[in-house]
Prior knowledge:
Number of strands: 6
Radius of gyration: 19 Å
Largest sheet: 6 strands, mixed
Shape: globular
Amino acid sequence: xxxxxxxxxxxxxxxxxxxxxxxxxxxxxxxxxxxxxxxxxxxxxxxxxxxxxxxxxxxxxxxxxxxxxxxxxxxxxxxxxxxxxxxxxxxxxxxxxxxxxxxxxxxxxxxxxxxxxxxxxxxxxxxxxxxxxxxxxxxxxxxxxxxxxxxxxxxxxxxxxxxxxxxxxxxxxxxxxxxxxxxxxxxxxxxxxxxxxxxxxxxxxxxxxxxxxxxxxxxxxxxxxxxxxxxxxxxxxx
Length: 238
């Protein structure tokens, strides 16, 4: 949570929902039932399928951009946003307390030139991100998935191990497929988070988008695939 002089890591108990972002909009889906048990894969799949069917235009007030700002600037903007209405305070709490974030992107990978998707996974335009979340799972239209996580709460090796295990599991033992039957009546478990935006809040968002764009435009990136370099080669040449 951004504060003026020092951020806070906040923990929440008995949370059942995951945050999903699409076109800069925020949704929550139920991942756990009232007893704290994981929902059936078909149920979660149906929630996401329903969410994907919603025709939402790109948000004109992409609040996620604020999380790219200088922390003191973001803290002040957040305090103003929360003070505008109880609706904003409740929506912000739903974002903060979500187990993790799923970002559904309107992009796709070019395997011959993966630089755009790498840039997207690293820093994006910020309009469909919430960089304060401990963990964000970014999925493009082709199903290509990347991980972006906020580093202060834990070590990267632990996150890498975690997702290596997940990748192995879903590759060898997938729970859902395009032929999975849709569970009816999941609409009530998907909620869109709404915010009241005044002139100052919109100005803060627009400034965040502009500042972040200037920064990422200054970053160049390329890649090299070279299969011959390995641990044995490194040791050989000391």
